[in-house]
Design a protein that fits this description.
321 residues, Rossmann fold, six-stranded mixed β-sheet, 12 strands, elongated
């Protein structure tokens, strides 16, 4: 290479971030009153119907949900307080939403009470039984029709509403998941492993020893390389075991009876399936410092929180970990 040759410096063109529009349902703001700040540099739209629902909810006797409604209203007020009516409908900058020098995210209020049926745009009827949900979906459908080349998404925690929106022709519908402790929750260990066939037929070497009042079976780690402490193992026969600890060369198992685990009572509760039985056993084990449980917000899971002092973290099928 000629040392006197001039160096060429090529310009790198950064792709601009595609601005997206998110229409929020009322339950999103009740779930997280600060949700308007969660969408960074994007455009957040709150239908007038949502404000009306928040207004009704803030006066309910239920102090928890009424408090969340008031906080959400105050958060919206801080953003649009000094804006003109036209600015509020077009979008007001949301403080703290700029990402690496990008423009601020914006918040707009959509006057959906002015909307009427338009044969060119899908429109859900506003009968009393479904009026509010349908009006919110109609806002997203209208924005999608007005901006066909842009990303328009309805965000709601209502599963049925998400189905209705998709069935009505809305291309993008999402759950609100900002409150997840883990983003890659699918990468979490399940907390158990099912082994096909007979477990003991796959083990060529085993030693039995006593530690206090506990009988442990020691097997070579190469026979169970995926094992980690506090996980459960079961096979297609009656084998059921708990991994007590894992060392460099060996895995120590504490065997249990599947029937015994299923018939145990935990704080007066009886497990409905093997997964629940394993999860309850971990929660009741004083030697397990922390148990991460994921599952839908059903009535059974909150019952476990009371005696254990747990806090729900996300929404997935219930599995011990």
């Amino acid at each position: 290479m000629d040392s006197g040759a001039a160096l060429r410096v090529g310009k790198t063109t950064l792709k601009s971030v595609i601005r997206k529009t998110y229409v929020l349902d009322t339950n999103v703001l009740l779930h997280d009153p600060t949700a308007v700040t969660a969408f960074k540099q994007h455009h957040v739209v709150i239908p007038m119907t949502v404000l009306e629902e928040l207004d009704h909810i803030k006066d309910r006797p239920d102090k928890t949900v009424s408090r969340e409604a008031r906080i959400a209203i105050q958060m919206i007020d801080k953003v649009v307080d000094n804006a003109t009516p036209q600015q509020i409908q077009e979008g007001v900058g949301v403080p703290g939403t700029s990402l690496d020098g990008s423009p601020l995210g914006t918040l707009a209020i959509y006057p959906d009470q002015r909307m009427a049926d338009n044969s060119a745009v899908p429109y859900l009827d506003d009968t009393q039984a479904q009026a509010n949900d349908n009006r919110i979906i109609n806002v997203a459908l209208r924005l999608q029709a007005e901006h066909p080349n842009e990303f328009v998404c309805l965000v709601t925690k209502d599963i049925n509403m998400r189905i209705k929106a998709k069935g009505s022709g809305l291309a993008h519908v999402e759950d609100y998941r900002r409150d997840r402790v883990l983003d890659d929750i699918d990468l979490l260990a399940k907390g158990y492993e099912h082994i096909e066939g007979d477990f003991w037929s796959t083990i060529s070497e085993v030693d039995t020893l006593r530690e206090g009042d506990c009988t442990l079976h020691r097997i070579p780690r190469k026979s169970l390389p995926q094992a980690y402490p506090n996980m459960f193992l079961y096979d297609d026969q009656q084998f059921m075991a708990f991994v007590k600890r894992v060392e460099r060369e060996y895995v120590y198992l504490r065997c249990d009876s599947r029937d015994n685990l299923m018939n145990r009572r935990f704080w007066g509760l009886v497990p409905r399936n093997l997964e629940q039985a394993m999860a309850m056993s971990l929660l009741a084990d004083d030697n397990v410092d922390m148990t991460v449980m994921t599952g839908p917000p059903a009535r059974a899971r909150p019952c476990w929180h009371w005696p254990t002092g747990c806090t729900p973290s996300s929404s997935r099928s219930a599995t011990p970990s």
